[in-house]
Design brief:
The chain has five helices and no strands. The protein has 82 residues and is mainly alpha-helical. The chain is globular, with a radius of gyration of 12 Å.
């Protein structure tokens, strides 16, 4: 995935659209992050300015290797937060 040079991360809906993050996939990723990470960390991650970039990468990884792989990566993050 290559992000456009002029990507405006301040406009989240437009950034997600430009990165071709599908609405259904985005909802699934948000739910997955909230299900794996502690509430505070999940909120910080999802609310971060860089979230559209991470969402695009998660979608790409999920399409290539399956959502279980994305969940495994998130579980490793969760293990590192304690």
């Amino acid at each position: 995935m290559t992000a456009p040079r002029d990507l405006d991360l301040a406009n989240r809906p437009r950034a997600l659209e430009r990165l071709r993050v599908q609405s259904a996939a985005h909802s699934q990723m948000v739910a997955m992050v909230r299900g794996v990470l502690p509430e505070r960390e999940a909120g910080l991650l999802i609310g971060s300015r860089q979230w559209p970039l991470l969402a695009a990468r998660m979608q790409q990884l999920g399409e290539r290797d399956g959502t279980h792989t994305v969940a495994q990566h998130l579980n490793r993050l969760s293990a590192d937060t304690y």
